[in-house]
Amino acid sequence: MKSKREKPFIAGVTTIAVLSSLLLLGMVFFMFRESLPIWSDIGVFQFLTGTTWRPVAAEPIMGIAAMLVSTLWVALGALVIAAPIGFGCAIFMAEFAPRSLAAVIRPVLNMLTGIPSVVYGFLGAAVLVKYFEATFDLASGESLFAASLVLAIMILPFIIANSEAALRAVAPQIRYAGLSLGVSRQYYTVHILVPMARKGMIGALVLGLGRAMGETMAVLMLAGNTLLLPISWFSKGEPLSALIALEIGSATPGTAHYQALFAAGLVLVVLVITVNLMMNTILAGLKR
Amino acid sequence: MNAVEIKEFSTWYGKGEILHNIDLSFRNNSITAVIGPSGCGKTTLLRSINRTAELESGFKSQGDIQVFDNSIYQVKDVSAVRRQVGMVYQTPAVLPLSIRENVLFGPRYYGEKGRSRLDSIVEKQLTRVALWEEVKDRLNRPADKLSGGQKQRLAMARVLAIEPQVLLLDEPCSSLDPASTGLIEELLQKLAAELSIIIVTHNLYQARRIAGETVFLLDGSLVEKGLTSEIFSSPADERTRGFVSGLYG
Amino acid sequence: MKKRIVSDYILTGFFWASGLFVLLVLAAILMYIIWRGGPSISMEFIFGSPAGYPLGSEGGIWPAIIGTLRLVLLALIFAAIPGLITAIYLSEYGGYSSLARSINLLIQSMMGLPSIVIGLFVYALCVVELRWGISLLAGGVALSIMIFPVIVIFSRDALRAVSNEYRLAGRSMGVADTYTLRRLILPRAAPGILAGILLALGYAAGATAPIMVTAAAIIAGSSGVLLEPVMALPYHLYILFNEHMSLDNAYGTALVLVAMLVFVNALALWLQHIQERTNTR
Ligand SMILES: Nc1ncnc2c1ncn2[C@@H]1O[C@H](COP(=O)(O)OP(=O)(O)O)[C@@H](O)[C@H]1O
Ligand SMILES: [Mg+2]
Fold first, then answer.
1. Which parts of chain C sit beneath pLDDT 50?
2. CA-based radius of gyration for chain C
3. Which of C75, C78, C142, C204 could connect to C210 by a Cys-Cys bridge, CB 3.0–4.6 Å?
């Protein structure tokens, strides 16, 4: 019943909903405005492909290629590590695990999501990096690889939860039709179940990628923080998020350095939002 | 000779007993219809025979089922049972593959190889279900573009391709139009020469048209089994009379 | 067939291994933190202030605990009401309109926004332009932006999970939708909404990047003045480790933080369970 009294209520609710969600656009616009001089003075191409970052020199040079490559390398590396385990675990929970075991793993995944990234970064740095240093006799064990490894564990719960949902969405009729032909569960899984859930599983992976690219603390503590262009997975690097976190406090507002950090932030946002939109398109394609 | 023999068989989902102590046999080379009100356990009975009921969580059973004198609970590998006893479901389910690969799904698993061998399987099975002429030009297209009746016949071809000895059908025509239904009934009558067919149906006319024998289930218990003509004309049990009289009244 | 049986075994082994790996990871993390951090935990550690030289290498973490609680509370105050209202709009009024779909999309994208970017934005707007400086208030704003989409999505889904029968029942009796919402829908969605708020709270309590550029100080009193910097647990952990102040205290701090978050998460899971039970027919 939409009474007269309801109308202002609905209008109010709608207004608040619109205003709150416009916050995102506001933020993007704000960051664009702050970084405008960079785009006009240095240029998009130069800024993205320049490999030198010397923001406080007398003649500042600012290109974020090294950080951009670090971000992508760390995140894609994490994905490569997490994908097989994540898919394996999702399939396990959807098809092979005894009910009671799946009922234990699900809350465990929630717990893993609940552990903050600074704790992952701390454990990675205090245990993993120290281990690398001792085993491979390195002066310092930080590397893109170390960051990828820890990020992989951080995004695992997202990949598993979303893949499992996709696998469970496969209609039971298909399952009966497949299994009643006498094929083994494994055969059914590989030939029917996974192909049917494929889009959802890819969506899960893309979601994980978005998370990995935006992560800050773990990469800050593990990637090694050097501004050189990484040449291998075992190089050190400084992803965009780490760059912003480390430098924004010391950049004087109004300087090109300050503006360049906003430009870097904008690049990161565009990257992550593109990935998320990609996933939305994938999932929308799934429903059809 | 009996194709399927069910002995003192009971099942449960969790704590609820669904089938109570069923003793029942199905003849080879004939069609037997299973009738009964919704929820009486017809699907459960069928799915017990090819051991797919146990895919549901909480399913338990007691007693024995024998297919051609071998207990299905004593085989090492359930796949063997499912291969011997094929099943077609109420909603036609196509696998997310091409028409051709739907038919070949089982055969490939059982090691069939070679282009000409596979081609001949596809043609033979699709012809058997009277689908060949309709789809022979688009065998490599996704199967989900077919009509409901075509999908159901494809599902039958897929099952027949693993050469089962018993064919279970769970209300195979309930979502089909009369023309497709007629086609499938004709098919079943032809197939009965080679197989034992057990069909659950809500359509009592259908049971009368195609089944040699009819089984009446009520609340998970066997009420009566006999020649179809007798079940419909002079049933021994009062409850059977009440149920089939829906046909006349 | 032989080959198939072998590959089936290998696959099964791989699926089991992946599943057990996840269990192992959590167990290893928790046990290691307890093993290393346990010895540091004491009354003085939890209720004491940082001490020693450099400050923090000895003493306790009480100001950091209080600071984190203040930040989280502030974030909740800013984000909860608009979040809930947006959720109500999306589940009760928006329907499939293009406006609702756009809002959904924006919220979804906001959920994926890197938290450091939120920090950057709040730093420029609040810390620099509005001249709040590094402060509790700025940190609260940053965290509230971060948890806003979490609250919206969980509340929206909790509301949507309530059976439509209730909405129809309300309409068929001619009562106002707002009345149905208040009397029937919201109470049934309450556990789910609360679970979402708890998860958001835990998420905020563990976030480091947004507060390290807007609110956190290595050492600060626990006065609670809005325009002064605060200490916070996650940032304190970062500093203890990164500035090589005290590894033992870092493990102790990590243990306290993780224990708090595991507790909050478990509570949220339990509430979600209740929500599911009340809303399945
Ligand atoms: N997976 C299941 N879990 C629990 N109960 C079930 C399940 N499947 C069927 N049942 C119950 O078993 C009974 C028989 O179902 P079914 O064999 O499908 O009957 P029919 O096919 O005769 O309509 C019904 O009461 C149904 O609710
Ligand atoms: Mg049925």
1. none
2. 23
3. C142
Could you read off the pLDDT of B45-77 as tens digits, one per residue? 999 998 988 888 889 999 999 999 889 988 888
Give bridge partners of residue C138 from the DSSP assignment.
none
Question: Whole-structure pTM over 0.90, yes or no?
Answer: no
Write out the residues of chain B at the interface with chain C, using a CB-CB cutoff of 8 A: 109-111
In chain B, residues with a C-beta closer than 8 Å to the C-beta of C4 are: 109
Rounded to whole angstroms, the Cα distance separating A57 from B185 reads: 87
Q: What is the CA radius of gyration of chain B?
A: 18
**Which residues on chain A are in Cβ contact (under 8 Å) with B89?**
173, 176-177
Per-residue pLDDT tens over the stretch B205-232: 899 999 999 999 999 999 999 999 998 8
| Residue owning tokens 């067919």 | B197
| Residues contacting A219, CB < 8 A, separation 6+ | A74, A121, A147, A151, A239, A241, A242
Of all protein residues, the one whose alpha carbon is nearest to atom 24 of ligand 1 is B39
What distances in angstroms separate CA C213 from CA A246, C73, C139, one per listed residue?
A: 9, 19, 8
Alpha-carbon distance of C123 to A249, in angstroms, equals 9
Q: Which two three-digit tokens encode residue C231? A: 């200490």
Radius of gyration, alpha carbons of chain A: 23
Quickly tell me which residue has 């993390």 as its tokens: C29
The separation between CA C89 and the C-alpha centre of its own chain, rounded to angstroms, equals 23
**CA dist C38 → C26, C42, C47 (Å):** 17, 9, 16
Q: Which domains does chain A have, with CATH numbers?
A: 37-287 (1.10.3720.10)
pLDDT in tens, A131-178: 888 888 777 888 889 999 999 999 999 999 999 999 998 888 888 888
DSSP secondary structure of A15-66: HHHHHHHHHHHHHHHHHHHHHHHHHHHT-HHHHHH---EETTSSS-EE--HH
Q: How many helices and strands, by DSSP H and E, does chain A display?
A: 13, 2
Whole-number Cα distances in Å, C84 to B89, B103, C69: 45, 52, 21
B208, B224 Cβ separation under 8 angstroms? no
Residues 6+ apart with CB under 8 A from A192: A170, A174, A175, A178, B95, B96
Inter-chain CB proximity C33 and A21 less than 8 Å? no
Q: What is the largest CA-CA distance in chain C?
A: 74
Q: What domains does chain B contain, in order, with CATH numbers?
A: 2-244 (3.40.50.300)
Which tokens belong to B41?
Answer: 């356990």
CA angle B35, B37, B40 (to 5 degrees): 90
Residue C54: asked if its preceding bond is cis (omega within 30°), the reply is: yes
Output the pLDDT for position B249: 42
Helices (H) and strands (E) in chain C, counts: 12, 2
Residues with CB under 5 A from ligand 2 (ion): B 43
Quick one: closest CA in B to A186, which residue?
B109
Give the position of tokens 């502030």. Answer: C74
Q: How far is CA C144 from CA A215, A262, C109, C133, C140, in A?
A: 18, 21, 16, 18, 6
Which residues of A make CB contacts under 8 Å with B? 99, 171, 173-184, 187, 191-192, 195-196
How confident is the model at residue B80, as a pLDDT? 85
Amino acid at site C73:
L
CA distance C45 to C50: 9
Angle at A35 between CA A31 and CA A38, to 5 degrees: 160
* C2 reaches B (C-beta below 8 A): no
CB atoms within 10 A of CB C281: 4
Q: Distance (Å, rounded) from C-alpha B13 to C-alpha B54?
A: 10
Chains in contact with A, counting 3 or more C-beta pairs less than 8 Å apart as contact: B, C
